[in-house]
Write a structure and sequence with these properties.
183 residues; alpha/beta; Rossmann fold; five-stranded parallel beta sheet; 5 strands; globular
Length: 183
């Protein structure tokens, strides 16, 4: 089980792979979580097995009474512009994706609530990477949890890695859940 103190113990000042900024950042967010009495975890979900793995990791590693979870799905439009007469929020071709997103977050939140967690949901539209970062910042998340699709080589170069981008730019700690982490 994660507690604020437990998360700080593995950080060593002798570890050259961690910058002093990263150590400070983790301590600041964990201190805020300890003061609130709950840890805020933002769970980014999509319709992949990796999102299911991230959900299972939360269920197995966090205490429901000390963790608040926001389940977020982001619908990313293919086109970045719309005709001027259309509202930026109106995109009929995204309605089905938004409905599927609502089902995803509702299902994950129901699983979390059944396990005793306090869970809220959100479906947003935009760039997945930026929406995860912005939501973490606005909500005051202590941790962002995302699954990794494990893309490599040319796919990673062309498509980028949401998990990698979030890990580099999030205002808090990030846990990337891969298949091999789940038994």
């Amino acid at each position: 089980m994660h507690l604020a103190g437990d998360l700080l113990e593995p950080i060593s000042r002798d570890d050259e792979s961690l910058s002093s900024h990263n150590v400070w950042q983790v301590r600041t967010f964990m201190k805020a979580a300890a003061e609130r009495g709950t840890m805020r975890v933002l769970l980014g979900v999509d319709d992949s097995r990796n999102s299911d793995n991230a959900l299972r990791m939360i269920l197995s590693q966090f205490r429901p009474e000390a963790t608040e979870i926001r389940v977020l799905h982001v619908v990313q439009p293919i086109s970045v512009s719309s005709p001027p007469q259309m509202s930026s929020r109106f995109a009929p071709e995204l309605e089905e994706q938004r409905n599927l997103g609502e089902e995803l977050v509702d299902r994950a939140a129901k699983t979390l609530r059944n396990a005793g967690f306090k869970a809220t949901t959100a479906v947003e539209q935009g760039d997945i990477r930026m929406k995860l970062i912005d939501s973490a910042k606005e909500w005051g998340a202590d941790l962002v949890v995302v699954g990794s699709r494990g893309r490599g080589g040319i796919q990673r170069l062309l498509l980028g890695s949401v998990a990698e981008f979030v890990a580099r730019h999030a205002p808090c700690s990030v846990e990337i859940v891969r298949d091999r982490q789940i038994a």
